[in-house]
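User: Just a sanity check before I run the rest of the batch. Below are the structure tokens for the first item. I only need the designed sequence back.
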């Protein structure tokens, strides 16, 4: 009976460890922009979550204390309980050496406890919390709040001791609390209180134009964006091909008038030979060289990972890296691409030149609706509408539609969102080619 109780206690401690791990990762993963909305939508649970998330350092300390206590208790109760499971087996097979039985039992108990602790108490709840941060945070906020106040003296003592250690090391314990405004709070100030914002951010800001306000707001977003948020899909990439004659490749150059082109081995797009810079071809022709083999003018092309911060890529471009990057792995087909223009567009708005005056991401129709490609990044629609969109895992407007439906749409289908509707105007296989966006202010099907 005692052994059964000990086993149940061990499993409870594993589950308790998992609870604190899930609570910790859920709070860290939860976006600040969603907290206030959850507080409004979910009553007492939502308000408690907002309170917990507002004191993140304190409640993360509570999570760490809970994890530590559960782990220590598991080692104290669990190992003897699991070790006893082998005793009947030793009796059956006739093992009488106490040292041998003790060694095997200890190894078995340690292996079982470690497996359960790592898989059930750590990895599984961590993955779940990362994938479902909102649900997990709502579920764990109330018991975590109670645990925090029940263990407040111990948590206070631990935090005070940790701060004393930091001070002894010459570190400022208040450094993490210097910022008066979060990014989202600054954006709300910029958007909602332009007339009075001078008193918040400085007297010289009162005369800022609309474009300057937008640039400031965009720069706040930019620091949190990744390459996947801004990249264009590979099927939109204008490229040259090694297997085509020079005349065909030069027709591509004349039609699009870009300065850089990826050079593919063939039409499959699986293998990239490198990048061709138009300046190299012009200099070669001026020098009297033949252009029959583009391989002679290939430059290396840089690859970046989808989760790379956009700011890091921007720094690369500033330091002299080619202003074109393929997204993906070097030995695989690229999933997209990014240029300096794409990054600057995310900061200051879309940039046009003398060759592509009408090549805007979104075309504003007479009735106030927007027409654009389904492959456009979600952030481009945010900029066009002047709103924040909770995109989930979607990276493009088409992906946003598919995510909302959990299925492929049909042409003419209308999908409703909180601040706008999207009508799918054109499909090509599984890809959404063209969409029309109806802001709620212009909620009119009209054409």
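Assistant: Here's the designed sequence for the first item:
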């Amino acid at each position: 009976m005692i052994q059964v109780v000990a086993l149940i206690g061990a499993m409870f401690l594993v589950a308790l460890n998992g609870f604190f791990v899930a609570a910790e990762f859920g709070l860290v993963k939860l976006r600040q922009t969603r907290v206030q909305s959850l507080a409004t939508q979910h009553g007492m649970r939502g308000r408690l979550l907002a309170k917990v998330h507002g004191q993140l350092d304190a409640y993360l300390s509570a999570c760490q204390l809970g994890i530590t206590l559960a782990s220590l208790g598991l080692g104290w109760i669990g190992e003897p309980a699991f070790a006893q499971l082998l005793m009947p087996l030793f009796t059956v097979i006739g093992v009488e050496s106490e040292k041998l039985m003790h060694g095997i039992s200890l190894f078995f108990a340690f292996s079982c406890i470690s497996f359960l602790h790592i898989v059930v108490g750590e990895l599984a709840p961590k993955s779940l919390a990362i994938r479902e941060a909102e649900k997990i945070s709502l579920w764990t906020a109330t018991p975590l709040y109670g645990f925090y106040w029940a263990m407040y003296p111990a948590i206070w003592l631990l935090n005070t001791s940790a701060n004393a250690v930091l001070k002894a090391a010459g570190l400022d314990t208040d450094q993490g609390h210097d910022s008066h405004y979060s990014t989202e709070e600054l954006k709300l100030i910029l958007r909602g209180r332009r007339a009075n914002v001078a008193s918040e951010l400085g007297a010289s800001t009162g005369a800022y134009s609309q474009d300057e306000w937008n640039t400031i707001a965009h720069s706040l977003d930019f620091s949190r964006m990744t390459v996947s948020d801004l990249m264009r899909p590979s099927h939109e990439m204008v490229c040259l091909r090694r297997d085509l004659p020079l005349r065909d490749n030069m027709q591509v150059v004349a039609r699009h008038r870009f300065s850089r082109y990826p050079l593919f081995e063939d039409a499959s797009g699986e293998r990239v030979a490198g990048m061709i810079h138009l300046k190299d071809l012009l200099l070669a022709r001026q020098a009297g060289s033949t252009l029959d083999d583009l391989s002679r003018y290939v430059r290396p092309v840089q690859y970046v990972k989808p989760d790379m911060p956009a700011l890091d890529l921007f720094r690369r471009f500033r330091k002299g890296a080619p202003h074109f990057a393929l997204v993906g792995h070097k030995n695989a087909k690229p999933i997209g691409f990014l240029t300096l223009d794409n990054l600057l567009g995310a900061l200051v708005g879309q940039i046009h030149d003398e060759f592509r005056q009408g090549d805007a991401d979104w075309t504003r129709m007479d009735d106030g609706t927007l027409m654009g490609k389904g492959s456009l990044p979600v952030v481009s629609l945010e900029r066009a509408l002047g709103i924040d969109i909770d995109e989930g895992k979607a990276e493009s407007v088409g992906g946003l539609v598919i995510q909302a439906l959990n299925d492929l749409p049909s042409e003419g289908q209308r999908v409703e969102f909180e601040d706008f509707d999207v009508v799918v105007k054109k499909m090509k296989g599984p890809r959404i080619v063209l969409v029309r966006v109806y802001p709620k202010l212009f909620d009119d099907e009209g054409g």
